[in-house]
Specification:
The protein is mainly α. Helices cover 70% and strands 0% of the residues.
Length: 201
């Protein structure tokens, strides 16, 4: 049976990502050019830039889809679920990777968390996660997303997740259990959010 066009597009994107991540791991992120990625993947330079605006975007893959899944999961939260618990559950769900995806995820996260040239790019991506989480906290607590608590929860939960990823990359706790432990530890630090009702800013 012939693959559907959407399947072919997904395959092309995934192949580009794998080729790029392998090149970055072997030669270093800054030493690899978009032209070299395109050549190694057997596509034209124009095709590469049709998929990814920059080589940094290859590292992040479908991050917009990841943020969208997080936002949808938060929107589906039951009203009676405590705010912080709902965020932790959403993080766990969208970061639940099957074993066969973990090697590529490891390559990707090593670059995201350890490559200096990606730091500025990373801040822009993290801001999208923070926006989604802060908006969720704001809806549940009746304050503005720019208020202290929504912003604090957004950056703190992201930091907890990032730390769990760092521990996993260092060969420590498995990713899923590390995320759970990180959020369990964090939960004790936000007693105002253990109740699903409104909280002060």
């Amino acid at each position: 049976m012939t693959a559907a066009p959407t399947d072919l597009r997904a395959d092309t994107r995934a192949r580009l990502e794998r080729v790029a991540l392998d090149l970055f791991a072997a030669q270093g992120f800054e030493r690899v050019t978009a032209d070299e990625i395109a050549e190694a993947a057997g596509i034209s330079r124009r095709t590469f830039f049709r998929w990814f605006p920059t080589k940094a975007d290859v590292v992040w893959g479908d991050f917009a889809g990841h943020v969208g899944r997080l936002e949808a999961r938060l929107a589906a939260t039951a009203p009676e679920q405590p705010v912080l618990a709902s965020i932790c559950a959403a993080y766990l769900e969208v970061n639940d990777y099957p074993p066969d995806q973990l090697p590529v995820l490891r390559q990707r996260m090593r670059l995201i968390l350890g490559e200096p040239a990606l730091l500025a790019h990373s801040q822009l991506r993290y801001a999208e996660v923070d926006r989604v989480v802060a908006a969720h906290v704001a809806r549940r607590t009746g304050v503005a997303p720019s208020a202290l608590v929504p912003r604090l929860v957004a950056t703190s939960t992201r930091a907890a997740a990032t730390t769990a990823f760092e521990v996993w990359l260092a060969g420590g706790t498995p990713l899923a259990s590390g995320l759970r432990r990180a959020f369990d530890e964090l939960a004790a630090g936000f007693p105002a959010l253990l109740d699903p009702g409104p909280a002060s800013t």
